[in-house]
Amino acid sequence: MSAEPNPRTLEVRLEVSGIRKQFPGVVALDNVSLRLRAGEIHALLGENGAGKSTLIKILTGVYQPDEGEIRLDGTPVRFASPRAALAAGISVVHQERNLIPQFTVAENILLERIPTRGVQLVDHAAINRLARPWMNMVGVEAAPATPVAELSVAQMQLVEIAKALSLQARILLMDEPTAAITPHEVGYLFRILGDLRRRNVAIVFVSHKLEEAFELCDRVTVLRDGRNAAADVEMAAINRDRLVTYMIGRAEVIAELPPKPPAAEPVLEVAGLTTKGGDGALSLVLRKGEVLGLYGLVGAGRSNLAKTLVGEIKATGGEVRVRGALTHIASFREALEKYRFGYVSEDRKEEGLILLHSVRANTSITIWRRLRLLGQWIARSIEDAAILPSLRQLDVRSHSLSQSVGTLSGGNQQKVSIAKWLAAKADILIIDEPTVGIDIKTKNALHELIWDLAANGRSILLISSDMPEVIRLSDRILVMRNHAIVGELPNNHQYDEMSEAIMARLS
Amino acid sequence: MHRLRGLAPGVALGLLLIDLVGMIVLSLVRPQFLSSYNLFVTGRDLSILLLVALAQMVVLSLGQMNLSIGSIGGLVAIIESGLMVRFGVPVPVALVAGILLGIVCGVINGLLVYWTKINSFVLTLGTSYVFAGINLGITHATPFYHIPNEVSSFGQARFGPIPLMAVVTVVLTLLLAGFLYQVVLGRQLLAVGGNAVAARLSGLPIRRATLTAHAISGFLAAVAGTMLMAQLGQGQPTIGATWVLPSFAGPIIGGAALSGGSAPVVGTVLAMVLISLIDDGLVLVSADPFWVEFLIGALILGAVVLGRTRLSDIRVFLRISAARPVGSIR
Q1: Which residue of A365, A381, A421 to mutate against B (max B Cβ within 10 Å)?
Q2: Less Cβ around it within 10 Å: N or C end of chain B?
Q3: Overall number of domains in chain A
């Protein structure tokens, strides 16, 4: 890429056709094609497991296709390794950051070709000087010598883009770039990507979020079950419903949730809660049989509040009453055993599940103490009998109870992390971001499940940054911003009206 | 899954096969391998080293390490022999005191790790020197000779080829396996090793699990030290000095994940059998004994490389090699 912006040429830069990739027991991709033009942003959409990641890995030389052809500027190519793809000008910015946190921004950008002087001495001045233009191009305002660890997630992402550009990337693959950044930062990222489009870079934008694809992209390719459900369709010629139909194979039916009994007496009353995490005087009331939505962006302090309620973070002030009685929950064990709290963490892999262990062990973990026989012994038959109703109720799909949880799909993993609280008969459930990274079908199933739990008398604090989710499920919505609750709204389940009301509280 | 993970089927089956082949080859090449005395001597070493390996395995299953197993064994042995020889303390009292001391040493390790949150490798490296230092301070490197006869005869007792010590080891191994797989505290320990945050957020007692793992480790090290003292017939200050490497070799070859959450009891047993076979085989064929360690080292490397490629990577490898012919046709 030259310093002078080229006009958008829209010539076909990358042409992928007839790609097949088989793994033992699964055909991950079957006859998949993708056409990418210089100066366009191309949405690559699909449910989890549709094959998006496999396709990205083939384009970046991580996997080799079993069949099919990749043409770069009309010439057939094969990328034997990620290095080869990089050398051909294809860069990928992954969901997970690929930066070295302790190194500076400039060092990260120039990592592969650190300038040296004399006998291989690192030339720090040169590094900072050479990195600067790339940083300017994507608008990273930090000094080149800033350690990456001090940047925000969004800034790190920009550094990765800068790095890709400095590697002469002509094709930029963005893998779910908006998953962890705020709407404001998303806006900024989109402006940068728009800039790059004008500079004739070809961009693939992988996302779950259809609204973003509509806002940003010129054309779209949709994968479903490893095949093209749509290939190279103009974005302007398609609407949301059509796109969803491509993704899930049928029109999206969001079933009306059945009526549930009105909320009863308060079970959890929080007044003026303050924490070390910086929460200022939070108050809320959660009633029996109610879904209380807590909407806020990542970083608003929602998870901090949740962890304080379950005793994982110390409260520094305020009152918490559970079923009318003043409590000081000091540890999670107490929250579970004395007050029947359950907590479904937003990070199910790191905080919710033991991936190496079985479905059985992950579900019964909360009730081992209750199941023990004489001499602390746990009998397999009693254990299975205790957890099977919960697993069945949630329709968890696994080969056997002995299958390790790490091998289940994201949706089934999430069901297991809820099932353990059902098994424990928890009746105040704090559920943090239940459907992050979960596909549309399973998401609906989880919504119905959460609704059901409330209809059956459990109390649910639903924390989410997914506005449609909060508006669909909540009886009331709390809006959280900067570690404070800035509004409480009764919910009429009308999306347009409610989302406007919520946004009004946030700005 | 617990049961399967305990058996670590792939690894254990492979080890079992290698063990059997090794035994058959060895008994064909050197018939004296099957002699009652040779089996007794080999079995006795195995009985002790297996406890050492299990002492490490139980801490590894928590995702931690214990470098002080040898020092605990040594300290226990000289305290027991000192009490019996110097102070004429009755045998049962001395032995119980020694075993309790081992448990206390383990609990100290556990408490330090839990309180300070410092890496267990670093902490037990420290306590290992402390325990060994107390040993040397007491003994000035001189053994306590002439321990009571009933103790040293236990070290020589056997039913035909089977050493009496083996009974102790077998019972403890079975108890440990049952504890880890089917007893609440054992499963909590494995869960904490598998994912400490998830375990805490499921209401499990982290401190109790940590202390229990280290206490069991200290206990097993103490029993191993006591048995070696009985075998040698004296309280040698050097008891346990060479245990660090085999303590890791057993569980690692047996399929333990250093990150915790797995406790391959059967794999560890089979791995220690293999190590004993190599040891004994090299003696029987009059090989240079200095090459024993080399072979065990090669074995660990092989096991680790195989372990890396165990499940998913083998699949990835198959994928790639399956893809190649198709690619080359085109």
Answers
A1: A365
A2: C
A3: 3
